[in-house]
Amino acid sequence: MILSRFLKIDGMAEPENRIVVRWGFALAAIAVMIRFVFWVYTDRLWEDALITVLHSENFANGLGLTHVRYGQERLHGFTSPISVLVPLLADIIHVGWGIHFIRFISALVGGLTVLYAMALSIHPSIRLSPPMAVLFMGYLALEHTQILWGMAGMETQLVTCIILMSVYYAATWKPMALGFSLGLCMLARPDYGFWAIVVGVYVLAKDWRQIFIVVGAAWALYLPWILFTTLYYGSPIPNTVFAKSMGYGMWWKGYDISQIAQHIRASLNGAYFYNSITAPLAPTFPGHGTGFIPYYSWTPWVARFMMAGYGIGLAVLIRRRAWALIPAAGFTLVYGLYYLLLVPIVFGWYMVPFMAVTMLIVVYGLDTLFGMAPKRIGRYLRPAYVSAYVMLIVFTLPKSFAAEKAIQEVVENEVRVKIGEYLGEVMGPEESVALEPLGYVGYYSRKTVWDWPGLCSRAVVEYSESADPAERNMESMMRALQPEYLVLRASGNFAWEIKGDWLDKEYVRIRKFRAPPANMVKIPWIEANLDTAYFLLKRKDLVRPEDIQWHGEPMYPPPGFWEKKNW
Is the pTM of this model over 0.90? Predict the structure, then answer.
């Protein structure tokens, strides 16, 4: 087959693989279709996608591959190279097409991701039973977190496909293709350097002479980007890395051993609101951007059962010496520890490729577990579990899609888009605004934004470098830099984080932006959303009477609104 030769997938023509291959192509087609449905129905745009695509649009407009504009040097304000290179292909043809192009490519790549899962499922050293192969592929095709971020304009779907591709070429021992995939991994996310080390150790143990082919192919793809960023920005290290390393403190600072252990247990139990690394193994909703919300009170137990399958899978692959799965197991162990201990905030999209590889070990373990049942029961056990799991995922999609559509229309379009558009009208070219959520305000205002922790702001990073560690926070940054405007969440920054009386002395609240309460109440889990209400403040020495359009009206919904909980 042409596709088999192009993708270097083995075994597709073998008779014993016919059922899995047919399911693979069917689920790949469904994966593409469901992503287009999500795109058309919700028109969801994730904030971080807008941060990246503004670099692409600025380049196409002759401003350079940068987020900032007025009188500032070029800034490397994105972490993943492919997240800007893919939209750039369309923006250079027509500015504004880039954000749509990466979503179009992500939809197609969703199908390709399923095909690589199929390839792993039929590999002779892995050989999943047809039902468990369907579970693996069905999860990647249909699970909400596997759909959301890629179809909201981020590079997540591309990263997921690339890592599964790399795992497959390691399992099938194709050194040249493996090296090429490693180069793509580094273009996907710089922290996939840990994966490159895992693969390097695997190659040295398997056949050290192939290391030159693997490393050579990887560097042939990745080195041009290193040279470009060094010459263009002055460093290959993105500004985002510096900003996060200084602006986000590690969660375990100040914790004792018992508190650290409690946090880790919570992160692994399938239901933890923030920093969970197992919750997406069961139906969850991440669309409010504040962590994974379990669909039902009992769905965390589904995730825990899947994690038990992961533990069985690790034990079985070691006992059977299934060396083809060693790279995948190494990936899950290394990145599991990385996300648990070395990442201050585990954003939901980090988990999507991690879950894709983890699911491979999970289904391998569950396949073994169900195979231990008596033959009369075992023949029905796998199909029954797979049917129940996949149907649970499918059953939650209508509510998830409707919630994403409502969030986009009621919260993003009515609040954050309007903040950006308003600032674009009133701000002068030399004025700046400070806030935390950069994406929508930066994209729709096209003004100088001092975001926290400074993802696209050299001024904020320079402040953090010079400030005492205790003063590395958003409030201290705002007080020190004194921008003309501030944008503060009524439900977060303003209520919780701004504690000093300096704010009332130096700034005036001039405008409010709030999602309509009557529409908010219809959104599932709306209590978890921090973006439903914002204050806009202006420095007192610059305020004119006509600027003030807020006169102390209630910012938030009427009493009793939040008691109408629906999660």
Answer: yes
